[in-house]
Amino acid sequence: MSERETLPAKPALQLGVDHDLCPGCGEPLALRMLLEAIDELGCARRAIGIVGIGCYTALSPLMDVDVVQALHGRAPSLATGAKRMRPEALIFTLQGDGDMVNEGLQEVLHTAARGENVTCVLLNNGVFGETGGHMTATTVLGQRTKNSLEGRDAAYHGYPILIGDLLAQLGGTAYAARGSVHDAAGVARTKRLLRRAFETQLAGQGFSFVEILTMCPTGWFIGTARGPEYLAEVLGPVHVLGELKKDGRYVSSEELRARATAK
Amino acid sequence: MTRALMEGSEAIAEAALAAGCRFFAGYPMTPFTELLEHFARKLPAAGGVCINAESELEAIGMAWGALATGARAATGSTGQGIALMQESLAEITRAELPLVLFNMARGQGDYFQATRGGGHGDYRHLVLAPRDAAEAVHLTQLAFDLADRWRNPVVVYGDYLLAHTAESVEIAPETFPPLPPKDWAVDGSLGGSGRSRSVNPLGMTKGIKGIEPEPFWKRLQAKHDAMARREPRWEADVPEGSELVVVAFGTLARFARLAVRELRGESARVGLFRPITLWPFPAEALRRACSGARRVAVLEQNAGQMIDDVRLALEGRLPVAAIGGISSDAAGFGIGPLLDSEEVRARIECALAGREVSA
């Protein structure tokens, strides 16, 4: 057996480890990757986070970077104003799927279209976790939630929005990617995606976006340990992992899915 | 300082620049549009930023982000667009950010919106109502000062006539007492130090789990109570022996001033009281101004909104009559037949004679 490196309990930019989120939640993992990416890029003293409203809001007191708390859905506009006044800062939003894709869809779309030099980070678990597991705009077809009890039915509830695809097609978007924290490889890849997004911003290339699929066993009504598997089986086939916009080229989720199947 | 002829919108934009405003975001809507145009032309040239927001929701969100970094920032609209901004306005108040918000209203029907607000929870903001472009230049600069002083939004309530009437104004940068440093503003510089900042409307504190809403809301209430005590502003032109006191604000007060002066020249015993702050309403000053009067007439261009504050202020001591009313042009922009000195004079004469004004 090879020697294993034990990482510290918390990244340098985290003020503590105590939080109230559920066991098995993927959001603390995503936060860790976010804070590590900021630190590794040497941006700890120039980062400003704009936090939306969702379970992850409870994590913001743990973040040892400057934070502005926004209303549900409005973070990209706040990020716009902050970046225009402080172009030297690394500005990112932290939003859930309810926040970004339901309530704030137009905000993030316009911010991307404007090519605002900010990074929007989406924690996507396909449910409103904070209210206890309700349908969002990214809930996949067939997924059971408290207000789609028989599973999301396209004829009744409509189709999920692939927000990464919408954003990647806009001229102002320089980088868009979808990662996941359901396994170790996914966690490591997520940090790389975040770093690339931040590097895009630091290079002044325009809007960047990282979607991170996170586990929500409470909101999915499954056992804690089943979270990663459920993510891979239920959310994974729809919200396909990969880079959707890079070097000016848009690669659709469909194409990413075809590539993954061909492998 | 030279005098220049310019429309109210331009005078306000110039005054905002003189006050150090560096950020503006807006969405076009009559009669606010020209204010956005002037900011779009003047701000970038002065080293600032003016963004054509995709909606009023986004305009106020952008201003929120700019304010959080410590910049002087403003947004605006007409009442309809400001209705869309109410959620953010309430939350920005709780985040204690110094927003200046211009309502170039379609008449005076947004009095309740401006003074009561349509957002959630307990919150208050100062409301300044200039009578003309010259006063708007002063009150705009005062708005930025008060916003910073109280760390609270300030609304400047104007209208079509104010925005679009060219008047001779003097844009002289005013000086105000020193302000405390904006050590709360985010610039990212304290990241990793254990003392990073948080601009938060929820009562959250860095390093502390959860929220503490009650003490947080009570602290804000105490601040708003102090604002209510210290910030009432008004102009009282009520000579000894006035039997009638007319109460009017903004543009309509300008018509009332002319009519009241004319009538006094003809020996009528009438005075004029003009609230400059709509919130806090200058209740105590109004009571004093009316102490020798026999009745009060409220002239406002709406179905009767400020009259509630007048009645609250007078606590039933004097009869209060409405002599204004809804009055509009065909487009609904608030340029109604009531905005006419002869019409205003006729209504004040009715009140002097103790007759009711027919709506």
Keywords:
heterodimer; A: 263 residues; alpha/beta; Rossmann fold; 8-stranded mixed beta sheet; two-stranded antiparallel sheet; B: 359 residues; 2 domains; 7-stranded mixed beta sheet; 13 helices; 15 strands; 18% strand; globular
Structural commentary:
The complex is a heterodimer of chains A (263) and B (359). Chain A has 263 residues and is α/β, with parallel strands linked by helices. Chain A has ten helices and ten strands. In chain A, the strands form two sheets. Chain A has an eight-stranded mixed sheet with strand order 2-1-3-4-8-7-9-10, sandwiched between helices. A two-stranded antiparallel ribbon of chain A has the order 5-6. In chain A, a hairpin with a 2-residue loop joins strand 9 (242-246) and strand 10 (249-250). The longest helix of chain A is centred in the C-terminal third of the chain and has 19 residues, at 184-202. With 359 residues, chain B is of the alpha/beta class. Chain B folds into two domains: 3-170, 3-Layer(aba) Sandwich (Rossmann fold), CATH 3.40.50; 235-352, Rossmann fold (3-Layer(aba) Sandwich), CATH 3.40.50. In chain B, 40% of the residues lie in helices and 18% in strands. Chain B has 13 helices and 15 strands. In chain B, helix 1 runs parallel beside helix 2 and helix 1 runs parallel beside helix 7. The longest helix of chain B is centred in the middle third of the chain and has 18 residues, at 133-150. Chain B starts with a strand and ends in a 7-residue tail after the last helix. Chains A and B meet through strand 1, strand 2, helix 2 and helix 4 of A and helix 3, helix 5 and strand 9 of B.
Low-confidence stretches of chain A: none
Work out the largest interface and the residue count of each chain.
Answer: A-B, 47 and 51 residues
Kindly report how far apart the N and C termini of chain B lie.
45 Å
Count of DSSP E strands of chain B? 15
Work out the number of β strands of chain A.
Answer: 10
Provide the spatial order of strands within the biggest beta sheet of chain A: 2-1-3-4-8-7-9-10
